[in-house]
Amino acid sequence: MTSCKATCHCGAMELRVTLSDGLNTARRCDCSYCRRRGAVAVSASLNGVEVTRGAENLTLYTWGTGTAQHWFCKTCGIYTHHRRRSNPNQYGINAGCIEGVNPRDLEPVPWANGVNHPSDRQR
Predict the structure, then answer these.
(1) Which end of the chain is more exposed for a tag (fewer CB within 10 A), N or C?
(2) Which long-range contacts (C-beta less than 8 Å, at least 24 apart) are formed by 84-87?
(3) What is the pLDDT of residues 58-72, one digit of tens each?
(4) 61 DSSP β-pair partners
């Protein structure tokens, strides 16, 4: 497991993150929301993310089932992390927020099929 620091653009908030498998979990999603956001996300367990500064500066965006929960800095608008719909026991961390990481260096990054997510199918 890899421990690192992640911050928004303005520095108002900071996370201490323990990644599940370093940067090896990097991926993008093509669901209606993520394809607009375009960020590369890496995985961390729910207990692997701690807001160490600026929790009051985070705002939450959610929709539909409410399972996916996306956090942003209120000041600069940067998406920092989200609770995954595909696995609610994980967070996706914006790789671009991790200190020393340039998402371009992670290419090629695989895509997850969020458009055809199982929870969207009729039961």
Answers:
(1) C
(2) 85/31, 85/114, 85/117, 85/119, 86/29, 86/112, 86/114, 86/117
(3) 999 998 888 899 999
(4) 70
- The pLDDT of residue 97 is 97
- How far is 44 from 48, CA to CA, in rounded Å? 6
Reported as a single tens digit per residue, the pLDDT across 91-100 is: 999 999 999 9
Helices and strands, counts by H and E, the chain: 1, 9
Q: How far is CA 65 from the centre of its chain?
A: 18
Task: Say what the pTM is.
Answer: 0.89
Domains identified in the chain and CATH numbers: 2-113 (2.170.150.70)
